[in-house]
Design brief:
By secondary structure, this protein is of the alpha/beta class. It has 13 helices and 12 strands. It has a domain at 2-167 and 208-231 and 279-294: 3-Layer(aba) Sandwich (Rossmann fold). A 7-stranded parallel β-sheet has the order 3-2-1-4-5-6-10, sandwiched between helices. A 3-stranded mixed β-sheet has the order 7-9-11. A two-stranded parallel ribbon has the order 8-12. The mean pLDDT is 93. It binds NADP nicotinamide-adenine-dinucleotide phosphate (NAP). Residues 6-7, 9-13, 30, 32-33, 36, 51-53, 71-75, 111, 166, 168, 170, 178 line the site of NADP nicotinamide-adenine-dinucleotide phosphate. One of its GO terms (cellular component) is cytoplasm. GO terms for molecular function: aldehyde dehydrogenase (NAD+) activity. Residues 114-138 are annotated as: Disordered. Residues 3-226 form the NAD-dependent epimerase/dehydratase domain.
Length: 311
Protein backbone atom coordinates (compact mmCIF):
# COMPACT_ATOMS: atom_id res chain seq x y z
CA UNK A 1 0.00 0.00 0.00
CA UNK A 2 1.20 3.57 -0.67
CA UNK A 3 0.73 5.20 2.72
CA UNK A 4 0.77 8.94 3.49
CA UNK A 5 1.73 9.66 7.10
CA UNK A 6 1.87 12.88 9.10
CA UNK A 7 3.87 13.09 12.32
CA UNK A 8 6.38 10.57 10.98
CA UNK A 9 9.21 12.27 12.86
CA UNK A 10 7.35 12.21 16.19
CA UNK A 11 7.36 9.64 18.97
CA UNK A 12 4.60 7.42 17.53
CA UNK A 13 5.25 8.14 13.86
CA UNK A 14 8.95 7.28 14.01
CA UNK A 15 7.94 3.76 15.07
CA UNK A 16 4.99 3.47 12.69
CA UNK A 17 7.17 4.14 9.62
CA UNK A 18 9.56 1.18 10.15
CA UNK A 19 6.58 -1.00 11.08
CA UNK A 20 4.93 -0.14 7.73
CA UNK A 21 8.10 -0.50 5.68
CA UNK A 22 8.89 -3.88 7.25
CA UNK A 23 5.42 -5.03 6.19
CA UNK A 24 6.12 -4.03 2.58
CA UNK A 25 4.30 -0.71 2.39
CA UNK A 26 5.62 2.34 0.55
CA UNK A 27 5.56 5.31 2.92
CA UNK A 28 5.48 9.03 2.17
CA UNK A 29 5.87 11.34 5.16
CA UNK A 30 4.92 14.98 5.58
CA UNK A 31 7.94 17.16 6.43
CA UNK A 32 7.85 20.84 7.27
CA UNK A 33 11.61 21.31 7.58
CA UNK A 34 14.89 20.05 6.15
CA UNK A 35 15.56 18.32 9.46
CA UNK A 36 12.25 16.44 9.36
CA UNK A 37 12.77 15.57 5.68
CA UNK A 38 16.20 14.11 6.48
CA UNK A 39 14.78 12.08 9.37
CA UNK A 40 12.05 10.63 7.16
CA UNK A 41 14.53 9.76 4.40
CA UNK A 42 16.78 8.07 6.96
CA UNK A 43 13.80 5.88 7.90
CA UNK A 44 13.35 4.84 4.26
CA UNK A 45 10.27 6.98 3.63
CA UNK A 46 9.62 9.31 0.72
CA UNK A 47 9.21 12.96 1.63
CA UNK A 48 6.36 15.32 0.87
CA UNK A 49 7.20 18.86 1.92
CA UNK A 50 4.33 20.70 3.58
CA UNK A 51 2.62 21.81 6.74
CA UNK A 52 -0.50 20.84 8.65
CA UNK A 53 -1.90 24.30 7.94
CA UNK A 54 -1.95 23.60 4.19
CA UNK A 55 -5.25 21.71 3.92
CA UNK A 56 -5.16 21.59 0.11
CA UNK A 57 -1.73 19.97 0.29
CA UNK A 58 -2.99 17.38 2.78
CA UNK A 59 -6.00 16.63 0.57
CA UNK A 60 -3.77 16.15 -2.45
CA UNK A 61 -1.42 13.87 -0.52
CA UNK A 62 -4.35 11.82 0.80
CA UNK A 63 -5.90 11.50 -2.65
CA UNK A 64 -2.54 10.38 -4.08
CA UNK A 65 -2.22 7.62 -1.47
CA UNK A 66 -3.85 4.25 -0.82
CA UNK A 67 -4.30 5.17 2.83
CA UNK A 68 -3.50 7.80 5.46
CA UNK A 69 -2.10 7.61 8.98
CA UNK A 70 -2.35 10.89 10.89
CA UNK A 71 -0.31 11.22 14.09
CA UNK A 72 0.96 14.78 13.76
CA UNK A 73 -0.42 17.30 16.20
CA UNK A 74 0.00 21.05 16.69
CA UNK A 75 1.94 20.86 19.95
CA UNK A 76 2.97 24.49 19.36
CA UNK A 77 -0.62 25.55 20.27
CA UNK A 78 -0.41 23.99 23.75
CA UNK A 79 1.14 26.94 25.65
CA UNK A 80 -1.40 29.48 24.39
CA UNK A 81 -4.55 27.41 23.94
CA UNK A 82 -4.10 24.24 25.96
CA UNK A 83 -5.08 20.73 24.88
CA UNK A 84 -8.39 21.92 23.41
CA UNK A 85 -6.55 24.20 20.95
CA UNK A 86 -4.25 21.36 19.88
CA UNK A 87 -7.28 19.16 19.23
CA UNK A 88 -9.29 21.93 17.54
CA UNK A 89 -6.59 22.28 14.89
CA UNK A 90 -7.17 18.61 14.00
CA UNK A 91 -10.81 18.97 12.98
CA UNK A 92 -10.37 20.81 9.64
CA UNK A 93 -7.56 18.38 8.80
CA UNK A 94 -9.78 15.36 9.32
CA UNK A 95 -12.57 16.94 7.29
CA UNK A 96 -10.07 17.64 4.51
CA UNK A 97 -9.01 13.98 4.49
CA UNK A 98 -12.70 13.10 4.41
CA UNK A 99 -13.22 15.17 1.25
CA UNK A 100 -10.16 13.64 -0.39
CA UNK A 101 -11.06 10.05 0.47
CA UNK A 102 -14.87 10.21 0.21
CA UNK A 103 -16.34 7.12 -1.42
CA UNK A 104 -12.92 5.52 -1.93
CA UNK A 105 -13.05 2.93 0.86
CA UNK A 106 -9.43 3.85 1.60
CA UNK A 107 -8.25 3.77 5.20
CA UNK A 108 -7.71 6.82 7.40
CA UNK A 109 -6.25 5.98 10.82
CA UNK A 110 -5.75 8.76 13.38
CA UNK A 111 -4.65 8.99 16.99
CA UNK A 112 -7.18 9.37 19.78
CA UNK A 113 -7.23 9.29 23.57
CA UNK A 114 -8.16 6.46 25.90
CA UNK A 115 -10.02 9.03 28.02
CA UNK A 116 -12.51 9.91 25.31
CA UNK A 117 -15.34 7.56 26.39
CA UNK A 118 -15.34 9.29 29.79
CA UNK A 119 -15.59 7.68 33.19
CA UNK A 120 -17.98 4.78 32.69
CA UNK A 121 -17.40 3.11 36.07
CA UNK A 122 -16.03 0.07 34.18
CA UNK A 123 -13.27 -0.51 31.64
CA UNK A 124 -14.01 1.32 28.39
CA UNK A 125 -14.28 -0.86 25.31
CA UNK A 126 -13.83 -0.17 21.63
CA UNK A 127 -17.62 -0.03 21.36
CA UNK A 128 -17.83 2.98 23.66
CA UNK A 129 -17.85 6.11 21.49
CA UNK A 130 -16.06 9.30 22.42
CA UNK A 131 -18.40 11.32 24.62
CA UNK A 132 -20.02 14.13 22.66
CA UNK A 133 -19.34 16.70 25.37
CA UNK A 134 -17.23 17.26 28.44
CA UNK A 135 -20.13 16.52 30.80
CA UNK A 136 -18.91 16.02 34.35
CA UNK A 137 -16.15 13.54 33.66
CA UNK A 138 -12.64 14.33 34.70
CA UNK A 139 -10.11 13.76 32.01
CA UNK A 140 -12.57 13.91 29.13
CA UNK A 141 -11.25 16.23 26.46
CA UNK A 142 -14.25 17.68 24.68
CA UNK A 143 -12.57 18.98 21.56
CA UNK A 144 -10.52 15.83 21.04
CA UNK A 145 -13.78 13.91 21.35
CA UNK A 146 -15.29 15.97 18.53
CA UNK A 147 -12.29 15.03 16.39
CA UNK A 148 -12.60 11.32 17.23
CA UNK A 149 -16.31 11.35 16.42
CA UNK A 150 -15.66 13.18 13.15
CA UNK A 151 -13.05 10.63 12.05
CA UNK A 152 -15.22 7.64 12.94
CA UNK A 153 -18.18 9.38 11.25
CA UNK A 154 -16.28 9.53 7.96
CA UNK A 155 -17.14 5.84 7.59
CA UNK A 156 -20.60 7.04 6.50
CA UNK A 157 -18.93 8.86 3.59
CA UNK A 158 -17.16 5.76 2.33
CA UNK A 159 -13.86 6.24 4.16
CA UNK A 160 -12.45 3.22 6.04
CA UNK A 161 -11.76 5.48 8.97
CA UNK A 162 -10.76 4.54 12.50
CA UNK A 163 -9.26 5.95 15.67
CA UNK A 164 -6.45 4.31 17.62
CA UNK A 165 -6.89 5.32 21.25
CA UNK A 166 -3.60 5.71 23.09
CA UNK A 167 -3.04 5.68 26.84
CA UNK A 168 -1.19 8.52 28.56
CA UNK A 169 1.91 6.34 28.83
CA UNK A 170 3.43 5.03 25.58
CA UNK A 171 6.86 3.97 26.76
CA UNK A 172 10.20 3.02 25.20
CA UNK A 173 13.73 4.33 24.95
CA UNK A 174 12.63 7.19 22.65
CA UNK A 175 9.95 8.52 25.05
CA UNK A 176 11.53 11.85 25.91
CA UNK A 177 8.52 14.18 26.11
CA UNK A 178 5.65 11.98 27.29
CA UNK A 179 3.89 11.82 30.65
CA UNK A 180 6.24 9.19 32.09
CA UNK A 181 9.46 11.22 31.70
CA UNK A 182 7.43 14.20 32.96
CA UNK A 183 6.46 12.32 36.14
CA UNK A 184 10.06 11.20 36.63
CA UNK A 185 11.44 14.72 36.16
CA UNK A 186 8.88 16.10 38.61
CA UNK A 187 9.80 13.45 41.20
CA UNK A 188 13.48 14.39 40.87
CA UNK A 189 12.64 18.08 41.22
CA UNK A 190 10.32 17.70 44.23
CA UNK A 191 12.35 15.01 46.00
CA UNK A 192 9.40 12.61 46.13
CA UNK A 193 7.15 10.71 43.73
CA UNK A 194 3.64 12.09 44.11
CA UNK A 195 0.25 10.52 43.51
CA UNK A 196 -3.21 12.08 43.86
CA UNK A 197 -5.27 11.23 46.96
CA UNK A 198 -5.13 7.51 47.62
CA UNK A 199 -3.58 6.87 44.19
CA UNK A 200 -6.24 4.31 43.33
CA UNK A 201 -7.13 5.98 40.02
CA UNK A 202 -6.30 3.69 37.12
CA UNK A 203 -3.94 4.41 34.23
CA UNK A 204 -3.01 2.23 31.27
CA UNK A 205 0.23 1.89 29.34
CA UNK A 206 1.65 0.41 26.16
CA UNK A 207 5.02 0.11 24.46
CA UNK A 208 5.21 2.50 21.50
CA UNK A 209 6.22 -0.31 19.12
CA UNK A 210 3.03 -2.13 20.04
CA UNK A 211 1.17 1.10 19.25
CA UNK A 212 2.80 1.07 15.81
CA UNK A 213 1.49 -2.40 15.10
CA UNK A 214 -2.09 -1.38 15.97
CA UNK A 215 -1.83 1.47 13.45
CA UNK A 216 -0.51 -0.91 10.77
CA UNK A 217 -3.20 -3.52 11.39
CA UNK A 218 -5.98 -0.92 11.44
CA UNK A 219 -4.66 0.45 8.14
CA UNK A 220 -4.39 -2.97 6.54
CA UNK A 221 -7.60 -4.61 7.67
CA UNK A 222 -9.58 -2.58 10.20
CA UNK A 223 -13.26 -2.25 9.36
CA UNK A 224 -14.63 1.28 8.91
CA UNK A 225 -15.90 3.49 11.69
CA UNK A 226 -14.16 1.80 14.59
CA UNK A 227 -12.16 2.63 17.68
CA UNK A 228 -9.09 0.54 18.52
CA UNK A 229 -7.42 0.37 21.92
CA UNK A 230 -3.61 0.28 21.95
CA UNK A 231 -3.52 -0.89 25.57
CA UNK A 232 -1.11 -3.50 26.94
CA UNK A 233 -1.04 -2.81 30.69
CA UNK A 234 -4.63 -2.07 31.66
CA UNK A 235 -5.74 -0.69 35.00
CA UNK A 236 -2.53 0.21 36.84
CA UNK A 237 -3.25 2.15 40.05
CA UNK A 238 -1.45 5.49 39.72
CA UNK A 239 0.09 4.89 43.13
CA UNK A 240 1.97 1.85 41.73
CA UNK A 241 3.43 4.00 38.97
CA UNK A 242 4.56 6.57 41.56
CA UNK A 243 6.02 3.79 43.73
CA UNK A 244 7.90 2.35 40.76
CA UNK A 245 9.37 5.78 40.02
CA UNK A 246 10.15 6.50 43.68
CA UNK A 247 11.90 3.18 44.27
CA UNK A 248 14.07 3.56 41.17
CA UNK A 249 15.04 7.12 42.17
CA UNK A 250 15.41 6.15 45.83
CA UNK A 251 12.81 8.75 46.76
CA UNK A 252 9.73 8.51 49.01
CA UNK A 253 6.26 8.08 47.50
CA UNK A 254 3.82 10.68 48.80
CA UNK A 255 0.09 11.41 48.46
CA UNK A 256 -0.48 14.94 47.14
CA UNK A 257 -3.82 16.79 47.61
CA UNK A 258 -5.61 17.79 44.39
CA UNK A 259 -5.43 21.55 45.12
CA UNK A 260 -1.64 21.27 45.32
CA UNK A 261 -1.50 19.25 42.10
CA UNK A 262 -3.30 22.10 40.34
CA UNK A 263 -0.60 24.64 41.22
CA UNK A 264 1.49 25.89 38.27
CA UNK A 265 4.75 24.25 39.46
CA UNK A 266 2.94 20.92 39.66
CA UNK A 267 0.57 19.44 37.05
CA UNK A 268 -1.37 22.64 36.29
CA UNK A 269 -3.68 22.10 33.31
CA UNK A 270 -2.87 18.36 33.28
CA UNK A 271 -4.27 17.78 36.78
CA UNK A 272 -7.54 16.34 35.47
CA UNK A 273 -5.52 13.72 33.60
CA UNK A 274 -3.33 12.86 36.59
CA UNK A 275 -6.37 12.46 38.85
CA UNK A 276 -8.43 10.72 36.19
CA UNK A 277 -9.15 7.01 35.93
CA UNK A 278 -8.91 5.41 32.49
CA UNK A 279 -9.53 1.67 32.80
CA UNK A 280 -9.85 0.18 29.33
CA UNK A 281 -10.07 -3.17 27.61
CA UNK A 282 -8.31 -4.03 24.34
CA UNK A 283 -10.13 -7.32 23.79
CA UNK A 284 -11.95 -6.25 20.61
CA UNK A 285 -8.72 -4.84 19.14
CA UNK A 286 -6.97 -8.15 19.83
CA UNK A 287 -9.84 -10.25 18.48
CA UNK A 288 -10.60 -8.16 15.39
CA UNK A 289 -7.12 -7.12 14.30
CA UNK A 290 -5.23 -10.14 15.66
CA UNK A 291 -3.02 -7.75 17.67
CA UNK A 292 -1.00 -8.91 20.64
CA UNK A 293 1.47 -6.69 22.48
CA UNK A 294 4.93 -8.15 21.93
CA UNK A 295 7.12 -5.61 23.73
CA UNK A 296 7.99 -5.23 27.43
CA UNK A 297 5.27 -4.00 29.78
CA UNK A 298 5.55 -0.76 31.73
CA UNK A 299 7.33 -2.07 34.83
CA UNK A 300 9.73 -4.24 32.81
CA UNK A 301 10.59 -1.20 30.70
CA UNK A 302 11.15 0.88 33.84
CA UNK A 303 13.54 -1.89 34.97
CA UNK A 304 15.53 -1.44 31.74
CA UNK A 305 16.96 1.71 33.29
CA UNK A 306 16.78 4.04 30.30
CA UNK A 307 14.29 6.32 32.08
CA UNK A 308 16.75 6.74 34.97
CA UNK A 309 20.14 7.73 33.59
CA UNK A 310 22.75 8.26 36.30
CA UNK A 311 23.36 11.86 37.40
N1 LIG B 1 3.50 9.38 22.31
C1 LIG B 1 2.67 9.24 23.33
O1 LIG B 1 3.07 8.84 24.41
C2 LIG B 1 1.18 9.56 23.16
C3 LIG B 1 0.31 9.25 24.21
C4 LIG B 1 -1.04 9.55 24.05
C5 LIG B 1 -1.51 10.14 22.89
N2 LIG B 1 -0.64 10.45 21.90
C6 LIG B 1 -1.18 11.09 20.66
O2 LIG B 1 -0.57 10.49 19.53
C7 LIG B 1 -0.33 11.47 18.53
C8 LIG B 1 1.15 11.46 18.21
O3 LIG B 1 1.86 11.85 19.37
P1 LIG B 1 3.45 11.89 19.40
O4 LIG B 1 3.85 11.82 20.83
O5 LIG B 1 3.99 10.90 18.44
O6 LIG B 1 3.74 13.36 18.84
P2 LIG B 1 5.12 14.16 18.83
O7 LIG B 1 6.27 13.28 19.20
O8 LIG B 1 4.91 15.42 19.61
O9 LIG B 1 5.29 14.52 17.29
C9 LIG B 1 4.50 15.51 16.69
C10 LIG B 1 4.65 15.37 15.19
O10 LIG B 1 3.79 16.35 14.57
C11 LIG B 1 4.55 17.04 13.59
N3 LIG B 1 4.04 18.40 13.44
C12 LIG B 1 3.75 19.28 14.42
N4 LIG B 1 3.32 20.44 13.89
C13 LIG B 1 3.34 20.29 12.54
C14 LIG B 1 3.01 21.12 11.46
N5 LIG B 1 2.55 22.38 11.66
N6 LIG B 1 3.14 20.64 10.21
C15 LIG B 1 3.61 19.37 9.99
N7 LIG B 1 3.93 18.52 10.98
C16 LIG B 1 3.80 18.98 12.25
C17 LIG B 1 5.97 17.04 14.12
O11 LIG B 1 6.86 17.28 13.05
P3 LIG B 1 8.31 18.00 13.23
O12 LIG B 1 9.31 16.89 13.30
O13 LIG B 1 8.46 18.83 12.04
O14 LIG B 1 8.25 18.79 14.51
C18 LIG B 1 6.08 15.62 14.67
O15 LIG B 1 6.34 14.70 13.64
C19 LIG B 1 -0.83 12.79 19.10
O16 LIG B 1 -2.16 13.01 18.65
C20 LIG B 1 -0.81 12.56 20.59
O17 LIG B 1 -1.76 13.37 21.27
C21 LIG B 1 0.69 10.17 22.00
Amino acid sequence: MRVFITGGTGHAGSHIIPELIAAGHEVTGLARSDKSAAALSAQGAKVRRGDLEDLDGLKEAAADSDGVIHVAHRQDLLPSGGMDAVAAAELPIMLAYGEALEGSGKPLVAAGSIGSPGNLGRPATEQDPALPSREEDKGTLRVRNVVERAVVGLAEQGVRSSIVRLPLIAHDTTDSAGFLPGLIALAREKGFAGYPGDGANLWCAVHIRDVASVFRLALEKGPAGRYWHAIADAEIPFREIAEAIGSRLDLPTVSVPEDVLMLPGYFGQFTSLVTGSFPASSLITRQTLGWEPAQPGLFADLDNGHYFPAG
